[in-house]
C-alpha cells in the first residue's frame, strides 16, 4: 500500500495528488493515507502537503530502498525479493542465513553499510555508509557445482557492462573477480556456494562497488590501490539506477547461461579483460611464477604461458598484473 | 579428569581401584573422586563400589560417548574434537553451524538419533535412537572445490573397508554415495560443501550406517530396500568399535589424497563397486537412459556406455542397477 501511494505521487510529481483521491483509488480512509505518508516521510521521502491541493513528492532519499530499486528493475525474478538493511556485518552472511531458511531464488540483500564486508580468501572489503553498492544475490541454478566458479566471471561481465553504460567509464576485469578502473580496484566479487554431490543448494554472489568513497576515508595504506566511480564518472547517475542495471544485465546473462552454457559469457569476458595479453605474477598455494596471461579455458581458468613456453592452468590463488598497478594490494584487510 | 578416572578403571577391570589410590594419582580429594564416579554412573557406566576394595567398572553404556570413541581411535586429528548429542535433527546441520563458528578441522558430530536425517537431493534418512551410526565429519582440505565430489567416493571406501573388517560382511559401493549389502541399502553418505572461487571453506561429510535397525521399525514401503549390519553380521562388534575403524580408515585415505591425489582411492573404489560392469538406468536432470557402467573417470564421474556405443559421463542424478535390487527406492523419504 505504501509503495502504491509512493508510485502514484512519483508519477504525478510535481503535480499534487489529493488525499481524497488517494483514499478513493486505494480503497482506504484519508487517515489511512495520512499514516502511510508519515511513514514514507520517516523513510526519508520529502512530501509536501498543500491545503486543498494535496501531497507532492519533492525529494527521494539517497538510499537503496526496495521501493526505489523495484521502480527501476526490468528483471523477471532477480531482485524481486529484497532484504534491505541500513547496516550489516556482511550481506553475504545475511543472505546465506536467509538461504538456509528457504529464501527465494533471486533474493537480493543490500545494505547502506557493511561493518565486516568480505573479499576473497578472508580478506575484508571497506564498505562505508551510503558510499557504494554493497549487495548480494541468491541463486539456485540447475547446473553442476563444478560450474559455479564461472558465475564470478558472469558477475564481473554484468557489473562492467552496467558501469560502462550508466557512468561512462572504462571499467576492466582482472581475473578472476576484480573490476579495475585506471588500474585501481573499483569492484570486488565474492561467490560462495553451498553444494552436495551433483547438486547446488545455493550460490551467494556478493558484489561491492565503490561508488563515491571519499579518498580521505580510505585507509591510508590502500589509498593508491582503490578508486570510486565518482572519481572519474562522465555521466550523472544514482546508486539505485546503477544497481538496477547491474541486476538487469546479470539476469539477462544468467538466463542465457542456463540455456546455452557459459561460452557467450567468456567471449564477453575476453573483451573486458585487462589480464589477457599481460605479464602476470601467479601466487598459487604451491608455487609462484611469472608468465603471460594468454586466455581463459572452458572452466574459466586462466591460462598462463611461462617463460619456458609451457602453459599453466590457474584455478585458484592470486594473479597480479606486471608492472604493478597501484600498490599491488587490491583488497582492504 | 572424569575421562582419566574412567581410563584407570577400564584398565584395571575386573580388579577394583581404591578411591584413595585414584585421589592420590589424580591429585584430588576422595570426595572429588566420588563426585566424578557419580557423574560417570549418570552417563550410564556401571561402577560397583566394594567396601575397603574400591571401585570396579562392570559395564559400559551402549552409547557413542566421546570417552568411548576416544578410547578406540588411532587418528591424528579426525574425531579428536567430538560433539555428542542424544538427539539432533541432523548431524550435518549441527556441524555446518559449528563450522561457521570456527570448529576445528576433523571435528566429529555424532548422535544417537536424528529426527530429520538427510540424504542426497533432499531425501530423508531414517535414524532411530541407538540403532545405527549417524555422524558427520568436518574437513578443511587444501584442494580445489572442483575436487570435493570425490570425497564422497573416499568416504564410501573407508566405510566399506571398516564394515568388512569389523563385521565380516561383504558391503559393496553403489555409485556415487550408497553402500549396499545383499543389494539393499546399508549406508548413505551426504557430502556438503561451502566454497568460494578456488577455495573450500569447509566440507561436511555425513554418514548414516544402519547397524541394528529392527526390521519392523523400518517404514513398511521401504522395508525391502533397507538392511542393517546386524541382519547378516558374522562377527560381534560394537557401534563404537565400528565408528573408530571408519574414522581410522577415513583419515588414512584422506592423508593419502592430500599427498598423492585421488587415484589410489579410485582404484580401491573399483574393487568395492557393485555398479561397474552392470546394466544401469540413469535418471539425469535432462534425460533418462539405459546403459552399462564401464568405469569411473578422473573426476569420479560414472562412465556409462549406451546401447549405441557412445559413452556418457554421469556427474549427477540417480543411477539404479538393473535388474532392480530391492524396490529401487533406496532412500527414506
Number of strands of chain A: 14
Could you say which overall geometry of chain A the principal axes of the C-alpha atoms support? elongated
Please identify the top-level CATH class of the largest domain in chain A. Alpha Beta
Going by CATH, the homologous superfamily of the largest domain in chain A would be Bira Bifunctional Protein, Domain 2
Describe the strand arrangement of the main beta sheet of chain A, using strand numbers: 3-4-5-9-8-7-6
- What is the alpha-carbon Rg of chain A in Å? 22 Å
**What about the largest sheet of chain A?**
7 strands, mixed
Question: In CATH terms, what is the architecture of the largest domain in chain A?
Answer: 2-Layer Sandwich
Question: Distance between termini of chain A?
Answer: 43 Å
CATH topology of the largest domain in chain A: BirA Bifunctional Protein, domain 2
Helix content of chain A: 25-40%
**Class derived from helix and strand content of chain A:** alpha+beta
Descriptive account of the structure:
The structure is a homodimer of 333-residue chains. Chain A is 30% helix and 28% strand. By secondary structure, chain A is α+β, with helices and mostly antiparallel strands. Chain A folds into 3 domains: 2-59, Winged helix-like DNA-binding domain superfamily/Winged helix DNA-binding domain (Arc Repressor Mutant, subunit A); 66-272, BirA Bifunctional Protein, domain 2; 279-322, Roll (SH3 type barrels), CATH 2.30.30. In chain A, strands 3-4-5-9-8-7-6 form a 7-stranded mixed sheet, with helices on both faces. In chain A, a hairpin with a 2-residue loop joins strand 7 (178-181) and strand 8 (184-196). In chain A, helix 2 packs across helix 3 (30-42). Chain A is elongated. Residues 325-333 of chain A have low confidence and may be disordered. Chains A and B meet through strand 8 of A and strand 8 of B. Strand 8 (184-196) of chain A pairs antiparallel with strand 8 of chain B.
Amino acid at each position: 500500500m505504501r509503495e502504491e501511494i509512493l508510485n502514484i505521487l512519483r508519477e504525478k510529481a510535481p503535480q499534487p495528488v489529493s488525499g481524497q483521491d488517494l483514499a478513493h483509488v486505494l480503497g482506504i480512509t484519508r487517515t489511512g493515507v495520512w499514516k502511510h505518508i508519515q511513514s514514507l516521510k520517516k523513510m526519508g521521502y520529502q512530501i509536501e502537503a498543500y491545503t486543498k491541493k494535496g501531497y507532492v513528492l519533492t525529494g527521494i532519499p539517497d538510499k537503496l530502498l526496495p521501493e526505489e530499486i523495484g521502480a527501476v528493475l526490468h528483471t523477471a525474478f532477480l531482485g524481486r525479493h529484497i532484504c534491505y538493511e541500513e547496516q550489516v556485518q556482511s550481506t553475504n552472511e545475511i543472505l546465506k542465513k536467509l538461504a538456509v531458511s528457504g529464501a527465494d531464488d533471486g533474493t537480493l540483500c543490500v545494505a547502506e553499510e557493511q561493518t565486516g564486508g568480505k573479499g576473497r580468501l578472508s580478506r575484508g572489503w571497506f564498505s562505508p555508509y551510503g558510499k557504494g553498492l554493497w549487495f548480494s544475490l541468491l541463486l539456485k541454478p540447475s547446473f553442476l557445482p563444478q560450474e559455479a566458479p564461472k558465475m564470478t566471471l558472469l558477475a564481473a561481465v554484468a557489473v562492467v557492462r552496467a558501469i560502462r553504460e550508466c557512468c561512462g567509464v572504462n571499467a576492466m576485469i582482472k581475473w578472476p573477480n576484480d573490476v579495475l578502473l585506471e588500474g585501481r580496484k573499483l569492484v570486488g566479487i565474492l561467490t560462495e556456494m553451498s553444494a552436495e554431490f551433483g547438486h547446488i543448494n545455493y550460490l551467494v554472489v556478493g558484489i561491492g562497488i565503490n561508488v563515491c568513497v571519499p579518498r580521505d576515508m580510505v585507509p591510508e595504506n590502500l589509498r593508491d590501490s582503490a578508486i570510486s566511480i565518482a572519481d572519474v564518472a562522465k555521466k550523472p547517475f544514482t546508486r539505485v539506477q546503477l544497481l538496477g542495471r547491474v541486476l538487469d544485465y546479470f539476469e539477462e546473462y544468467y538466463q542465457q547461461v542456463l540455456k546455452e552454457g557459459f561460452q557467450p559469457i567468456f567471449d564477453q569476458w575476453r573483451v573486458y579483460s585487462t589480464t589477457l595479453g599481460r605479464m602476470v605474477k601467479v601466487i598459487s598455494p604451491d608455487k609462484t611464477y611469472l608468465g603471460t596471461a594468454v586466455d581463459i579455458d572452458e572452466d574459466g581458468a586462466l591460462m598462463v604461458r611461462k617463460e619456458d613456453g609451457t602453459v599453466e592452468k590457474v584455478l585458484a590463488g592470486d594473479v597480479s598484473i606486471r608492472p604493478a598497478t597501484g600498490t599491488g594490494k587490491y583488497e582492504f584487510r
